[in-house]
Amino acid sequence: FSSGGRFMSLPDSTDELLNLFRNKKVEISLAIKHRFPFLHGLRDKGIITEETFKMHYY
């Protein structure tokens, strides 16, 4: 992860990862310009279900 030119270490736990996403959600959403390939990647890695993918992609 890069933060203002610095590299951050990866979170040690799921809770830390979720907190990181919560804290950076606006920055993440602004960085995503196209739903493809973002949603495809989430689905392929099992982060979102096929149903959630279809609901938000189509």
What is the CA-based Rg, rounded?
A: 13 Å
Arithmetic mean of pLDDT: 83
Helix content: 55-70%
Number of helices: 3
> What spatial order of strands do you see in the largest sheet?
1-2
Compressed to H and E, one letter per element, the order equals: EEHHH
Computed structural class: mainly alpha
The total of beta strands comes to 2
Estimate the global geometry from the Cα principal axes: globular
Note the main sheet.
Answer: 2 strands, antiparallel
pLDDT < 50 runs, ≥5 residues? none
Terminal CA distance reads 30 Å
**Oligomeric organization of the protein chains:** single chain
User: Into which percentage range does the β-strand content fall?
Assistant: 5-15%
Structure, described:
- It contains 3 helices and 2 strands.
- With 58 residues, the chain is mainly alpha-helical.
- A hairpin with a 2-residue loop joins β1 and β2 (6-7).
- InterPro entries: HSR_dom, Sp110/Sp140/Sp140L-like.
- Residues 1-58 form the HSR domain.
Describe the SSE topology.
Elements lengths: L1 E2 L2 E2 L6 H18 L3 H10 L5 H8 L1
Antiparallel strand pairs: 1-2
In short:
Pfam families: HSR (PF03172). The chain is mostly helical and 58 residues long.
Features:
single chain; 58 residues; mainly alpha; two-stranded antiparallel ribbon; 3 helices; 62% helix; 7% strand; globular; HSR domain-containing protein; DNA-binding transcription factor activity, RNA polymerase II-specific; HSR_dom; Sp110/Sp140/Sp140L-like
